[in-house]
Amino acid sequence: MDGVIVDSNPVHREAWKAFNRRYGVETTEAMYRFMYGRRNDEIVRGFFGDHLPAPEVAARGAAKERLYREMIAGKVDGMMPAGLRRFLEARRSAPMALASNAEPENIAFVLKESGLAKFFRVVLNGHQVERPKPFPDIYRRAAELLGEPPGNCIVFEDSYSGVEAARAAGMRVVGLRTTYAKLPGADIAIGDFLSEELETWLGAQAAQ
Prior knowledge:
Layout: H1 9-21, H2 29-35, H3 40-48, H4 54-72, H5 76-79, H6 84-90, E1 97-100, H7 104-114, E2 122-125, H8 137-146, E3 154-157, H9 160-168, E4 172-176, E5 188-190, H10 196-207
Parallel strand pairs: 1-2, 3-4, 4-5
């Protein structure tokens, strides 16, 4: 979702920066890079240490995400990559899933604000599988729920951990350059969903 359905990482950066300052922590560029594609419990422990008990990890993660949702309220439509809605409309008969390490409250919020929920037959978050990305569990589970073999699936990803997870699941990968200029392991990289190169590539996949 983050970086694909919504170009949200700039806002996540600002939210973490403001949240971390509540605890006297200045967020470095290395910390920002650490957060991309990770589940919240991993981020909180990475920022504040492994000594935190699980309830405190959950509480801090939830508080940061409340701040994030306040920051994007009413702005989600403008955060979507160009051409996304048209792209989904053109393929609404295809089996599509949203599989994200994002918190379930964020997923529900973004889908409601954007009106995109109708396109996804399956919605999964990283807490519904034993191992989050970069492990392949969430993508394998999504394929299972869609009733499709992994080899039939194409994943849209913006993060290194997401590309790694999709590859490990045996799927093809379209990289969105919303977060990184290069995504090693992606079959194709695009700037947004208006890409003619993407349409050509998808047509070639369907012909195989």
